[in-house]
Design brief:
The protein is α+β, with helices and mostly antiparallel strands and about 400 residues long. The chain is built from 13 helices and 20 strands. The longest helix has 17 residues, at about 390-405.
């Protein structure tokens, strides 16, 4: 039996490493670029955020804006604990960081790549580069399962008894045409995990300032997320922004990436909380300069910026702060409004919302309900998670399940 895997990313290589090593089963991976596992290499700043320590599957499912019906099956069978066990059984030690993200102890994504690659080589998997797919055709056989004829963009042709498509997410609908030709429908792709552009806004002068815990809301929607926020030279980034972009991927695309974001720089503090803190401060430390006494532990540059925005001068003391200025400061701290116009995505971190319609996939096997012998795993499916190791977990889970079933 010949198994062809289309795409040498996380899902494709992990599947190749996990297909049972049986006599008569030949596995080959075909990659359109000149390198494999590129996202694994680049992820987590080159450290590879392997998974997340969220072991409660119902809670874990909440980290995926799309694909829960499939993930509900796959994550129970191969979830974060199974992922940890798989790597550690092969000599890769992992560590959990305070925010729950799990990395190799080496802090080097190459450790993960080498582990997967070594397992592939032990199984005598062959890897071919510069093999973009032009078309897949089928031939009927006596067994009832079709035989696949794959034509590549370099005009070479191969045949296979089983095909696993792990080509990742494509940003343009036309890039899915060779999959649609198999009878599959595609949920229109739009970007997920992107940052917010706030052109020519003075806050961008604070680039590099990070606030550990904020709440951001998209005006006019129910989209609310919490977490760290990073101010950049083009706008806003960080986990809170990336999570928001994942949750709102389709809605923000429909708005052509023009919307208002409301930032609570104090995370979950309310008007009552802030007024209470300020009242106590005015009573007990009223002689302190507002600029020097920041009761909310905001980064100094951000605190000074907010005071300037509120017209509070450097020589104003807390005991002398006018009520109007206090109210304005409160609004800026709890409901700071920014107009977003555009997004920024990074090629190595790009995640697609959209892909192969999950109703056409058997969640128990990851086999196509449309074409017997055709399997899918990873980001090519219409399933994606927020930032934090969840997209890799989906890749490992779906790839493992496809691998266990593809040679049956």
């Amino acid at each position: 039996m010949k198994v062809a895997i289309i795409g040498a990313g996380a899902a494709g290589c992990f599947a190749a490493a996990n297909i049972p090593y049986l006599d008569g089963v030949e596995v080959a991976v075909y990659e359109k670029t000149g390198k494999g596992l590129q996202k694994v290499k680049a992820s987590g700043g080159g450290r590879c955020n392997v998974t997340h320590e969220c072991f409660d599957i119902p809670e874990l499912l909440t980290r995926y804006p799309r694909g829960k019906q499939l993930l509900r099956k796959s994550l129970y069978r191969f979830g974060p604990q199974q992922t940890i066990d798989w790597f550690e059984q092969r000599g890769v030690k992992l560590k959990t960081e305070p925010d729950g993200r799990i990395f190799p102890v080496s802090d080097d994504s190459q450790t993960i790549i080498d582990c997967i690659w070594q397992q592939m080589m032990q199984h005598k998997v062959k890897v071919y580069y510069h093999k973009g797919v032009a078309s897949i055709n089928t031939q009927s056989t006596e067994t009832g399962n079709p035989r696949f004829i794959i034509t590549f963009t370099d005009t070479s042709v191969i045949s296979a008894d089983r095909v696993l498509i792990t080509a990742g997410g494509f940003p343009k609908p036309e890039q899915y045409k060779w999959i649609e030709a198999q009878g599959h429908t595609i949920q229109t792709p739009v970007p997920s995990l992107f940052t917010f552009n706030i052109p020519k806004h003075p806050i961008t002068e604070l680039m590099g300032v990070s606030v550990p815990d904020v709440t951001i809301k998209i005006a006019g929607t129910k989209i609310v997320q919490h977490g760290p926020l990073l101010i950049t030279h083009w706008g806003m980034s960080g986990p809170a922004v990336l999570k928001t972009s994942a949750i709102g991927a389709r809605e923000l695309a429909e708005r052509n990436y023009e919307f208002q974001v409301i930032v609570n720089w104090l995370n979950d503090l309310t008007d009552v909380d802030v007024r209470g803190i300020i009242t106590q401060l005015r009573k007990e430390q009223g002689k302190q300069l507002v600029q020097n006494k920041n009761p909310f532990n905001l980064p100094r540059r951000l605190w000074e910026y907010q005071l300037i925005q509120c017209g509070i001068k450097e020589d104003v003391r807390w005991g002398e702060l006018p009520a109007s200025a206090q109210n304005k400061l409160l609004e800026h701290l709890l409901r700071d409004i920014y107009s977003v116009k555009g997004k920024t995505t990074f090629k190595e971190e790009f995640v697609t919302c959209g892909g192969v319609n999950l109703s056409e996939i058997d969640p128990q096997t990851l086999q196509s309900r449309v074409v017997p012998g055709l399997f899918f795993a990873g980001e090519i499916l219409d399933a994606d998670g927020i930032t934090g190791g969840y997209n890799f977990q989906h890749a490992w889970s779906s790839a493992w399940i496809a691998a266990q079933n593809i040679s049956l």
